Amino acid sequence: MEAVNTAHILPLRKPVIEVNSYHAFSQAIVLTDEALSLPCLFSHYIHLFGVPEFDKGNFIHFASYSFFHELPYTFVSKLHIDQLRSWFHDPLSFFIDCLHKNQYLAIALDEYYIPGTSSYQTKQQVHHLLIHGVDVSQQLFYVAGYFSNPPVYDSGRPVSFDLLRESLRHAGPIRQRVSQTLEIIQYPYRDISTPDFELDVHFIARSLEEHLLSKPLTEKNPQRIHFWFGLRLYDLLEQFLERELEAEQPLIHMKALQTLVNHKQWMMKRIEYLHAHKLISDNGLFAMGQDVLKQTVILHQWCVKQRVRRDPSNIVKAIRCTQQLKRSEALFLEKCLNQLVIA
To answer: What whole-number distance in Å separates Cα of residue 255 and Cα of residue 62?
Structure first.
């Protein structure tokens, strides 16, 4: 007799942008239907910005949105964690109902109780997790988040009902945007008022130009105008590397460098998409883009090497890589703009 599969696990795709949980979870969900999501995603995720003063060293970020409710064909409900605790005697039953309605659950939980995380049974640390499956017969939830040490994005990790209940009970407030909120995400979602989203080539061209000129022309938040946008963030990265050289100790969080690598990986996928849709015809862009990606990976490796074995020459080489990367990316963006077919 065949075993009955009692698990209900919602699909997730491997996100390209995985360094930050908000971007990673959004991509993991919406990439399950690329026909709907790619026109939106490829119209955004172009511009980067750097934070001039940031003591934790993670100062390079995507200038695009990362809220679930800003993604097309997505329905999101939010519930404050205090409401969740007061309205439901056992929130886990509510979680199970949502999952069986094909709704993902994004929430901040105490990773001390989440097996596989770097904080498991070592320290209290509240972090963003995505619950995307359940097996009631096995008393298990399945979650996506950051596991191992150093943390790496993964999904489908089992967590027992008891441990998730404890993790929720000890989840205190943290200084993040949705840290005290349960987000219930349904995708794809369409009703009579849902607008169709098409690839916006004009917006792509404008965003590429902004990144090239380091001008946040479409920046929504004027308070961020003093940040270092576009190619100028490489000047900021160079300053941080020089500070590392003077301090003789690591200052830059590796997430900043991984953001750069994710940016170039997504850039290459966009070029492939534009070429497939005959919006770019020059095959030479592939080689230029691959070279930019390769230089970014080498820069990342020099910084990793510095953390394994401190040597001033590693930082010097990383600075040279940064300078060359800025020049190469500028040439690449200029050619992209020249080749982009805009009706």
So the answer is: 12
